[in-house]
Specification:
The chain is mainly alpha-helical. Helices cover about 80% and strands about 0% of the residues. It has helices spanning about 1-10, 15-45, 50-60, 70-90, 90-110, 110-130, 130-145, 150-170, 170-185, 195, 205-215, 220-240, 240-255, 260-280, 285-295, 300-315, 320-335, 335-355.
């Protein structure tokens, strides 16, 4: 009899209990949103480690909630913000899983903007891991999504994905075509928020620096020098640390191409110092450039040691490039068999990744 009374009481109180659970769920979602805002604010101050901690706390709150459109939408935003911070602070490999989780959720229940941002993140982490071949169809999908959209910001980022994929896949003519199109759309004030959302760096500076690489390869060395100098100037003007570290690193590589090792060494040292100060993960291993500059100055043995260390650390973009520098240093040092082995290893990687 007591059990029947208890059951009847539960039935009578069901609306009250349901309201309590709904209120608790809404409170949890609101708290998760607050952690999202805290994480985004920290990221805007380049405090990426702190941002990661805030965003992980927000995600931890959502684990207790059942799936619903509001809950999943909140998780998509948290996962995207977390992945962006991980990309900047720890590298593309660390960002891949949260980007994939956001992408899976966005495909089933996200808004159009969330679907674009999540796909962009998957493209970004793939391309920055050195997977140019796998990144290409993702970039093509981003371009297709924005053909009729009318949103110049999303179109700019779709073009961004295309020029970065093409640059590392070895197509300088199409790279420059897309960087030129991106530069026409780019507005440093209107698109200021993009450097915190899409790959952790400014699209205008990226268009200039990868456009400069394309100009170099197409036989326009003075244009290349001017473009990459403009990229560095823009990065300094907007005072965004990760963008500045990229500009310094890529500028140093251009000086290596120009056979100006002293200038290359100075720039890469500045990039390394900035990365250490701001606790950033550079997508291109700076030890490779450092060692190549030393080889260019005649310090082959010391340079080779730096390049080897850089290649060993590099599980990301540019490993074949590092092996090419290693081969050059070994050849200068007289070890031609080892130089050929390094080149063969680099070629094997490019056949697998498409870089």
């Amino acid at each position: 009899m007591a059990l029947e009374t208890h059951f009847a009481d539960l039935v009578e109180r069901q609306p009250e209990l349901l309201a309590h659970h709904l209120t608790a769920a809404r409170d949890t979602e609101r708290a998760a949103h607050q952690w999202l805002k805290a994480g985004q604010y920290a990221a805007e101050q380049s405090a990426y480690r702190e941002a990661i901690a805030h965003l992980e706390r927000g995600l931890g709150l959502l684990h207790s909630l059942p799936e619903s459109p509001d809950r999943d939408g909140c998780e998509i935003d948290l996962q995207l913000a977390l992945a962006g911070c991980l990309l900047t602070a720890k590298g593309a490999v660390a960002a891949k899983l949260p980007y994939m989780r956001a992408f899976d959720l966005a495909e089933s229940s996200g808004s159009q903007r969330q679907r674009f941002d999540a796909l962009y993140g998957v493209w970004q982490s793939t391309n920055m891991s050195g997977g140019s071949g796998a990144a290409s169809p993702l970039s093509a999908r981003l371009l297709s999504m924005t053909e009729q959209e009318g949103d110049d910001g999303l179109r700019l980022q779709a073009l961004h994905s295309a020029w970065a994929t093409l640059a590392f896949a070895g197509d300088p003519a199409k790279t420059r075509e897309h960087t030129d199109a991106g530069r026409l759309l780019y507005d440093p004030e209107k698109h200021a928020s993009h450097r915190f959302v899409y790959g952790g760096h400014d699209p205008g500076a990226c268009a200039l620096l990868l456009g400069a690489w394309a100009e170099w390869l197409l036989g326009h060395p003075e244009k290349a020098l001017a473009s990459i100098a403009d990229s560095l100037s823009l990065a300094e003007r907007i005072a965004h640390p990760f963008t500045l570290s990229l500009a310094l690193t890529f500028f140093s590589v251009l000086h290596l191409n120009r056979r100006e090792p002293e200038r290359a060494l100075s720039l890469v040292e500045a990039a390394k110092a900035l990365a250490a100060e701001q606790r950033l993960s550079l997508p291109f291993e700076p030890g490779i450039v450092h060692g190549a500059a030393l080889v260019g100055q005649g310090a082959a043995e010391e340079g080779i040691a730096h390049i080897r260390e850089g290649v060993t650390k590099s599980t990301r973009l540019g490993r074949p490039y590092g092996l090419a520098f290693l081969a050059e240093g070994l050849a200068w040092h007289g070890d031609r068999a080892a130089a050929l082995a390094a080149l063969q290893e680099g070629l094997e990687i490019t056949r697998t990744t498409g870089e």
